[in-house]
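Re: your question from the hallway

Yes, I did run it. Sequences:
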Amino acid sequence: MAEKNTDSINVNRRDFAKAAAAVGAAAAAAGQGPFVRTAKAAERKIKYGFIGPGSRGRRLLERHLQFMDHGECVAMCDIYEKNLKKALDIFDGKPTAYTDYNKLLEQEDIEAVFITVPLFMHFPVIKAALQAGKHVFCEKSLVFTPEEVHELRALHKANPKLTIQVGLQRRYSKFYHKAKEMIDAGAIGEITHIQAMWHRNTNWRRKAKPEFEDQFNWRLYRKYSGGLCAELMSHQVDVSDWFLGQHPRSVMGVGGLDYWQDGRDIYDNIQLIFEYPGGQKLQYSSIMTNRHIAGRRVPGDGCRETILGTNGAIELTLIPYGDGMYYPDRMKVTMESQAKEKPPEENWVAGSTVGTDTAEQGEGFPIDPEAVNPNEVGFIEKELFFARTWAYNKGIMRPEESVDPEYAELSSFLKDVADGNRPRADVDVGLQDSIAVMLANLSMDEERKVYFSEIETMGNAAPEMSSTGSGSRAGD
Ligand SMILES: NC(=O)c1ccc[n+]([C@@H]2O[C@H](COP(=O)([O-])OP(=O)(O)OC[C@H]3O[C@@H](n4cnc5c(N)ncnc54)[C@H](O)[C@@H]3O)[C@@H](O)[C@H]2O)c1
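Structure:
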């Protein structure tokens, strides 16, 4: 048993060395990563306004933004006084307070805004902000309707210098970047399937007096919310698009409201299959009645993306913290080798070796987001890298990323605004992600396969909308 273990670690050591060597110093390349600071960015402090500091917004302010010296919160807006006060308190009441975001946008010293209002209000606020000449960070899912997809594309075209970033923090995680580098270096061969899930055991309901029901529980109603697709799947379909380097061509699915029949009208369970132009499938599941997840290593929500390739698999999660596993599974018979002449009677023998290697089938190795290229570092750093890898494999230590991806996405936004750089999670990423959310919901509503090309003929008419600070847009 001990011998097997050593072998496995050698496989891991070889594979990591190979993957790391192939990716080289890519992760550290200037301008690519949120973790590389430029002198220029550090010099410039971006004055920003914050709109909608509810649960998400205050998390971003409390945990991250208040500690950044390259940004300064000069204005805060919320229609709900209690949330406004709590957010102002984080900055000792210094930012100017507003209850109408249009008034905040008139404040001239504001260069950028963070938007964390409910989904149905994202676009009206984004639109007003861009028209006021402000750079925009907006939470996912970026927009809510097909009309808004078309209108935001046009707005961006008309204002190309204004930065638009969407809050998809996996794009700023070192675990995810390391996994992507390993995949690009061939560690799992050719990706054929992706499985992603976010399983929870929760009702999502907030306690609210009847008059505040819609405002507090907007997530539960279709007129304000995209349900599980917008709130959870949006993160994971984006990982799939990013890792495959393509967008889906179609989606089909089944959704149900089968357990939480408490007046809400969003689905409480969804099962979807996205198909990509290269034939790859993303199989997606989100439920609200159980968070068990097979083979889970870390305690926490049942959230996972599994990338399945011809030579191995990679599992990733950011819930409750970043974690990644690599499972080698070498394909011994490939299309190429099969095509080469072999006596038919030998084929089944060759086939029986599929999936075997010095690593046991299903044996996994932790991904180190801080892994170095052993060929490019000195002796001590190289030995430390192998020692860390050994400790991770033995379960003595857990790999961690040095920067919280939420911190990284916010910090990176301020730097990109200062430097005029395009963010990783830019407007195109955000729009494509929103399209996937809308079409996934449509496929379940209409019980049919929906093609992504359909978005181009959907909702082209300019939408009628209220963009006042009242928060009322969809009939509340
Ligand atoms: N990236 C992530 O991991 C993540 C996690 C949670 C939430 N989110 C997103 O963040 C957004 C907010 O979610 P939440 O849970 O914080 O919602 P929330 O209801 O707790 O907070 C929304 C806030 O916006 C305020 N608001 C509503 N209309 C407004 C208006 N017109 N002007 C100013 N303020 C207004 C509300 O009063 C409230 O304080 C959603 O889009 C959600 O999907 C993202």
